[in-house]
Design a protein that fits this description.
299 residues; alpha+beta; 4-stranded antiparallel β-sheet; globular
Length: 299
Amino acid sequence: MIISNINLISYTGFKTNNYKKNNNISADTFVRTTSFGNTSKNQSFEEFKKWAEETNFIDNVEEIVDSTGEYLGSGFEGTTYGIPGTDKWVVKEDKRSAISFYKTEKPQIVEIKDKAPSLNIGQMIAYIKKPVSKNATRTLYILKRQKGYSFGVPYDIRTTVSKENIDMHISSLKKMSSLPLEAYSDMIDDVITANNAGFKFDYYNPNNILIDEDNKKIGFVDVTEEDIYPLKNQLPDILYCMLDGEFAINFNRAVNSIGRKFEAQRYSNEIFSKFIMALEKKGIKLDKSLNLQILLSTL
């Protein structure tokens, strides 16, 4: 094995030049319905549209968002809810565009073209426009639903130093480290496939990484479709997120003060080791340009 001194990894974490603060939804639980794989006919929107028409979903969607829907999580951009009666989709209200001041004559379901219908990375497949007054429209988005627990300390409390948050941080590292090497290998393949399809991950928010313990998988949510190529879904940055580098940097002293530094470091080392081994099997090396030389120094 090429990795010879894994213990040289510092628990102070890693930071890239383009680091930014969390800015997306951190949903707690999603249900995975499809997987990465061979392309197939684009049925994402048509399937949803047929179901929505059969269940009068468009008439009930506001009630789901306002009261009856299963709360999944919220972040800088908006809030996501489960939809009663289906485990295939979720509905998201974006804080920035929930209410727009333009006229809509009647409720509409509008397709968002799914560039990769065989993939499930929580991408949007449709949006709903509903008139709320003479000159105002409410917009709600429909996303594919996935399975798994959000990695890391939740978005809305992760800047707080507390024993509970440290426990949650270490618990997430432990769950991630317990996944088999195959999960890391599949995740890397997924990232490459999604990148080629034109999807961009916001992997700076660890809550956008899902741990599916039942199926031994690593997934993602909150992706966007980009028109700029090549996309930059950098594997070193995803590794940084899988180690929850931000939390590790900000609360290193706090973790150490309660005697859990070496426990956290052990799980981080296991994550790092599996990630590197999965890359090696594919003949991929980390990019030195992303200021992660400390990772490369252990190879």
